[in-house]
Amino acid sequence: MWRFSADPVRLFIVDARAMAPMLLFLVHMRLWTLITAVAGVIFFAVLAWLGLTLPVAWRMFRVVVCGPRRPRLPSRKKRAYA
Description:
By secondary structure, the chain is mainly α. It is built from 3 helices and 2 strands; from the N terminus they run E-E-H-H-H. It has helices at 20-27, 31-50, 54-66; strands at residues 10-11, 14-15. It has a two-stranded antiparallel sheet.
């Protein structure tokens, strides 16, 4: 009964979280919201195919942009004797 409780919820083959942009289209049916929703579903489907969640993908993007070294304090606030 509890065997698959940690697995992500899926609607057919797509992760259920990837269907969240479709809610925008269902609320406001226009061509641009359809295109946005389909692009969002494709983006989340690619992330699921790569085995990533959105927070993990965001952290990887942040490392690419900022670099792996992130000092805790700015250099002007660091004390020389500590």
